[in-house]
Design goal:
Order of helices and strands: HH
Shape: flat
Structural class: mainly alpha
Helix content: over 70%
Keywords: Signal
Largest sheet: none
Number of helices: 2
Radius of gyration: 15 Å
Distance between the termini: 18 Å
Number of domains: 1
Length: 61
């Protein structure tokens, strides 16, 4: 449970930083920013799914 809260907080921090960068860069780099968003969200989903798998293994073993 604590791990999920930590990961959620880290995801929010990363998204805030990416959003700030997007506002600094401006509209010509929108495609690149969207690629960064997709990459960051993909990494976050991998971390969450890995932590859920580990949590489930700990519960059953």
């Amino acid at each position: 449970m604590i791990m999920r809260a930590y990961l959620g907080q880290m995801i929010m921090i990363i998204l805030i930083l990416v959003k700030e960068k997007e506002e600094e860069v401006g509209s010509p780099h929108t495609i690149q920013t969207q690629q960064v968003h997709t990459f960051v969200l993909g990494c976050c989903l991998m971390m969450v799914s890995n932590s859920n798998l580990q949590f489930m293994q700990e519960m059953w073993w």
